[in-house]
Amino acid sequence: MPDKKPSSVQSSHADKPVKATPSAVKRTHGRSLTEALKPEAKTPQTKRPSSVKVDAHKPKSLFFDRDESWMLFNQRVLEEAEDACNPLLERVKFLAITASNLDEFVEIRVASLLQRIEDGFDQPQRADGGGLTLQQRLDRLSVVLHNFVDAQYKCWSRKLRPALAAEKIRILDWKQLDERAREYALRFYETEVDPLLTPVTIDPSHPFPRVLNKALCIALLLHSKRKTRAMPKPVASLGVVTVPRALPRLVALPSEKGCFDFILLHKLIESQVERMFRGYEVLSRAAFRVTRNSNLYLQEEESRSMLESVRAELYNRRKGDAVRMEIESTAAPEIVERLRTNFELDKWQVFLTESPVNLTRLMVLPGLVSRPELKYSEFHGRHYHLASKSKNLFDELRSHDILLHHPYDSYATVEEFIESAAADPAVVSMKQTLYRTSDDSPLFNALTEAAQSKEVTVVVELMARFDEASNIRWAREMEDAGVGVFLGILGLKTHCKLALMVRRDPDGVIRRYAHLGTGNYNSVTARLYTDISLLTARPEITSAIQSVFRYLTAESDVESYAPLLVAPLTLAPSLLQLIGRETAHAKVGRPSGIVAKMNALLDRATIEALYEASNAGVEIDLIVRGMCSLRPGVKGLSERIRVRSIVGRFLEHSRIFSFTNGGHPEVFCGSADWMPRNLVERSEAVFPVDDPALSERLRNEILAAYLADNTKARLLQPDGSYVRAPQNSTAFNAQERLMQLSRNGHHL
């Protein structure tokens, strides 16, 4: 049994990998797409000493393990798949989401743990997990992973698949097909599938093929029917067939009216393997899938641009060391052991599953079944209507700010803002950040067309994980169209969501107009994620945004970015000051309180400040969708802190931070979670919402709805578990309430 842990992914252009983080990679000035990298000063790190002391009455660890906390989040998503109150086909989607989430977790987080252990960084982690070493954390995590995968397949085989069959939606094996379906499947196989297959028999002249990351394959145990003098009693051979990625994983079959029958593509291929391996007896067959290390490593070289580096490492990612193997539980033990040995995996890295091996592929099923009663009812966010005296959005913004809560407010307003700026001859300059965008983005077209007549600058984040390839394509195409494309600051992901338009208005005055958001400029995810957009012409905000763009393109520093909180420069200390201000208010009896909504809470200095605020008397409500390292409800530590997570129809993605401030509330929104990577390792922007009506909407409509939710909310307990929020006589679902308000066309 091999005991070798997977090694780190290495650049083909370097002897030693260098990870692209501020601690390991030097910064450069804002770079054009074709400039070489020129190292300069290191990214500033914010030093924030611990202020919380542990006493004998408090838990051994003040913080929950981030990876176990993330697995609990995915468990909450799985609960939505198990919940019979959700529409059946939406439950299938939730299950597929858990599988997609788990893929990324394994290829990034588990791979990272393995790398660090291999590199010798295995000292006890005092602040996390009660002093466990990385190996001990990995041992615990492996148990959690296996239990979770078991729960996924129980959900599929015992709940969802029978429920689908009851609705005449069936995923059939080859032996279950009737004559008509079998004839159709065979024709499909012969015309569409067979030409793409390359069967391989493993022997000295045919080495094991390179299996790409997450590629579905079929392994076969074969006995040759031929006898030779050299091998009168041939040993079993291993055969491998890769399932083509170009074909749909679910093949629709002819069926009776009102019925929907499918066969999994790999099951169809498995039924025909004897035709590919003539001269062999097929003893056993099983689908398997290998997940590889997908951490990106960049070698800093003056002779290569960032784009070239990322492109090279994307190629390496597809071939990273194996981290996990999933294989059907019906596989012969000999197949499992041969594959495990080939991929140099420990036994815990092998996951025996039922079919289908890749549950992510079930995501397409709802789209193939025309049964609207088994899906969420269709929803479209309300459109923003201009005042009668306003000719366009620019007129509107000169009189007041606009706050949008997506998807309840249509994202079309944001697209209209950018598209109208691109078409308006009075707009002389456009600047925008792009982190992730959709393939058919109207914003991309608007920016490229605008570049023909005005100055257009775009700061693209090439290293938005798993979107690097599409971002490279966008960057090249925009540059070819005349857009000034920059890559921000090396070592800092450009994660802020900003757009700035400079316009000569009819009165002859040049003004700046801006969009600030919590979500990506992506019209597809804007229908599925909850996010906040602020459109404004406030000079203090638009001037600060211009300073941020100068920082991103020229690393030009200014004394203050106020009223914006900008990472990695001012956000971290400002956040501690805001929490500290509530602490000071509470100590002298002034009104105090914090309500904060985010995706994740991991930054320990911030958590310690919240603990201190709790002990001073500040009431704190945290709405944290995913990972949360803070331990709430512990006497003498966090007894005034409550943490809830909401998982529902829409992915909760908005970040909203409300501070009571002695009776003068302040509310901020932005792109940053309270995580170290957001506070000191990314370019982020958090912005105030100063308009009293908009601030009140954030506090009394949006945040209040999430705090009242007793249907989709789970409450984090002091031991790290989550429990459903207790229901009173009236069930309250925050997302449904906000959809209702949107349909009615008014706010609270």
Tell me about this structure:
Residues 1-56 and 297-304 have low confidence and may be disordered. Strands 14, 18, 19, 20, 21, 23, 24, 25, 26 and 27 form a ten-stranded mixed sheet that branches. Strands 10, 11, 12, 13, 15, 16, 17 and 22 form an eight-stranded mixed sheet that branches. The chain has 748 residues and is α/β, with parallel strands linked by helices. Strand 11, helix 12 and strand 12 (455-460) form a beta-alpha-beta unit. Helices cover 34% and strands 20% of the residues. The chain contains 19 helices and 27 strands. It has three domains: 173-374, Polyphosphate kinase middle domain (polyphosphate kinase like, 2-Layer Sandwich); 393-554, Endonuclease, Chain A (2-Layer Sandwich); 565-744, 2-Layer Sandwich (Endonuclease, Chain A), CATH 3.30.870.
